Amino acid sequence: MEFIHQCPECNFELVRKEGEAQHYCPNSLVCPPQVKGRIEHFTSRKAMNIDGFGTETIDLFVEKKLIHNIADIYQLKKEDILSLDRFADRSASNLLEALEASKKVSFEKVLFAIGIRFVGDTVAKKLARHFGSIDALMAADATQLMEAPEVGQVIAASILDFFKDPMNLMMVESLRKSGLQFQLSPEDMPVKVSEKLKGISIVISGTFEQHSRDEYKQIIEENGGKNASGVTRKTNFLFAGADAGPSKLDKAKEYGVKIINEEEFLKMLRTA
Hints:
four-stranded parallel sheet; 4 strands; mainly alpha; single chain; DNA polymerase, domain 1; Rossmann fold; 3 domains
């Protein structure tokens, strides 16, 4: 069986990244089905939560060339919407009101909505809280990205690739000019209990007795520390519980990173 080499929708050359099984079309900002998919994702309840952008409506906007990318939805005018058969005056007004309301959606949801590959809603939340703004995220290198919770090599590479693309940068700037939130608001910032772990990068692996792993991650953040997903030379501690990952243990030993257990971590908090 011979596999196709070009996208059947836009004729772009298909690619397959190392370590992945499937080929895909990289022309995500122009390929019609991908443009529609990105808009569906952007406007979905878990992302920008914009009422009125059902599948049929999105298809119509794209086919009539009123929208070419997700940033274009904020350029829609009432007369554009009323030119479509599906819309009357009230429904057009409702859609514009929903778009205006979405400009208040938090940065972490905006970050999820823009569609960086492998960045789901949980990772987007972690990234937003770790970096605080889109500008800090865009300025980060691979090592700095992997210091953020839940971010490993694959996600870091995907983020770097996303912000290398001039079209993505233009899209982000257009969304920024439209008034979307690209900085974490003070009320969304993690609550700080102390600065006992300020400047300390900790990788957690395994299971624990007194708290869950997620609870310990929260404790680290609340005390000013950084949750990192992978062990690097810049990691200060590997906080290892039962069944800690062998690869993390091996890297910690290779890089000379101190390995601490649950008792040692809690003692660190008490005495710091």
